Amino acid sequence: MQAFRPVIGICGGIGSGKSAVAAAFRALGCEVCVSDDVARAVREQPEVRAAVVARVGRDIVRPDGSIDRAALGRAIFADSALRTDIERIMHPRIEAARRAQFAKAPVSTRAFIIDAPLLLEVGLDRECDAVVFVDAPRELRVHRVMATRGWDAGELDRRERAQMPLHDKQARSTETILNDCDAGELARRVEEVLGAIVARGPRAGRL
Fold first, then answer.
1. Residue 126: which residues within 8 A CB-CB, separation 6 or more?
2. Alpha carbon distance 149, 146 (integer Å)
3. Which residues contact 205 (CB under 8 A, 6 or more apart)?
4. N or C: which end of the chain has fewer CB within 10 A?
5. How many C-beta atoms lie closer than 10 Å to residue 69's C-beta?
6. Is the whole-model pTM more than 0.70?
7. d(C-alpha 90, C-alpha 51), whole Å
8. Each residue's pLDDT tens digit, 85-112
9. What's the pLDDT band for 207 if we cut at 50, 70, 90?
10. What is the dihedral of CA 133, 108, 100, 90, to 10 degrees?
11. Cα–chain center distance at 40
12. Residue 137 neighbours by CB distance under 10 Å
């Protein structure tokens, strides 16, 4: 009988270091699907690009014909109805790509990780045996987004207001990993959480 291989979702605040946690899971032998990477590929499929441009407008098209991700992001965050429409276009294709990736994972895979910015908002947690909330002090998150994205604290707050409140995300998660440490300590924390999830077994009622 094959060992239990849980599906684990990752959520958390912007700048909390979800990508670092996902990388730590990958180093432990897990198959990681990074939804942002999948979305980038899906967005450039001709039929998807045409549908997105038709809905948003040609202002988001770069001179080379590709979609300007930053411009699309600004439009989506400013218009909740637009965001919903784009999600309807994108998410079924992202889900299909994720399922295909997991199906091809080696039998030695310890767990399947879904790193998705809107994991809870779009209901992906229903497909998970566990959801890990990645936490970090706000000051550290602001420092990270300033260094990596050029945002100030106000921009971080504006972006987070378009998402589910952090306390709700944490309340709906089964585990929390505090990412306020160096890579070695983070790897230890991730391994401890992975062990606990595997030991607990499948979640009842998972889709």
1. 206, 207
2. 6
3. none
4. N
5. 14
6. yes
7. 10
8. 998 999 899 999 999 999 999 999 999 9
9. low
10. 20
11. 13
12. 12
* Least confidently predicted of 10-19, 74-83, 124-133: 74-83
CA angle 101, 56, 164 (to 5 degrees): 60
Contact between 33 and 98 (Cβ < 8 Å): yes
Alpha-carbon distance of 47 to 62, in angstroms, equals: 17
3-state secondary structure the chain: CCCCCCEEEEEECCCCCHHHHHHHHHHCCCEEEEHHHHHHHHHCCHHHHHHHHHHHCHHHECCCCCECHHHHHHHHHHCHHHHHHHHHHHHHHHHHHHHHHHHCCCCCCCCEEEECCCCCCCCHHHHCCEEEEEECCHHHHHHHHHHHHCCCHHHHHHHHHCCCCHHHHHHCCCEEEECCCCHHHHHHHHHHHHHHHHHHCCCCCCC
Say if strands 31-34 and 112-115 run parallel, antiparallel, or are unpaired. Answer: parallel
Whether the per-residue pLDDT at 179 is higher than 90: the answer is: yes
Cβ–Cβ under 8 Å, residues 166 and 13: yes
Mean pLDDT (the chain) is 93
- Average pLDDT score over residue span 145-160: 93
